[in-house]
Amino acid sequence: MEPFEPLRVTLSEQAAVRGTAAVQARLRLVTTAELLCPAPPPVRTTDLNAELDALCAALTASVRRRPGWLYYAPAGAVLPVLARPRLIQAAVLCMLRGVLRVPGGRAVVTCRMQGGAAELTLRGGTGGFDAPALLRRLAREAGGCAVIGAGAPFAAALRLPLCTALPLRPSPTAEELLRDKYSLPYVYLGRDCAGDHTLRS
Q1: pLDDT digit string (tens) for 6-41?
Q2: pTM of the shown model
Q3: What is the CATH number of domain 41-166+175-183?
Q4: How far is CA 137 from CA 2, 45, 69, 132, in A?
């Protein structure tokens, strides 16, 4: 049994009785702690571009903020990296939490292919406590490197080598993330998400 599984089961039971919002902060802490722990070597790669496409589309549809608060520039290509999808999502969501805590804050997320590697850059907000740790964990897990700025606004750049030797795992759609009340956008952004479970056209 995974070390965090009993605690996750307990929190799920509490959420069923008291509602998701009542246990969201604890669920976020457990999820972050779990993702910061080393993981077994992956047997499949994750498409960084597809994960970010789905995540940013779900956030654009559900987060209660003025239009344009999140600018996302996708790579437009498959970027297979050796990293857990939940780690990718959590690292970006922690950075975005810092943006949403700043009045009028704006986030810039860009993803591109450069010289056999995926480059992910994030800018905006405060970064918070968890974002730097999760981004460094992501870079280590994928065999890459991360450079994280020390000032405000928060800025980070990751270079993650591409891996084409392993099969690619399927990525979620924005609709799937919006339908699942325990998906990471709801866990990390909580009340900032409208929770209407639909994509705006």
Answers
A1: 655 565 655 555 555 666 777 888 889 899 998 898
A2: 0.86
A3: 3.30.565.10
A4: 19, 16, 26, 9
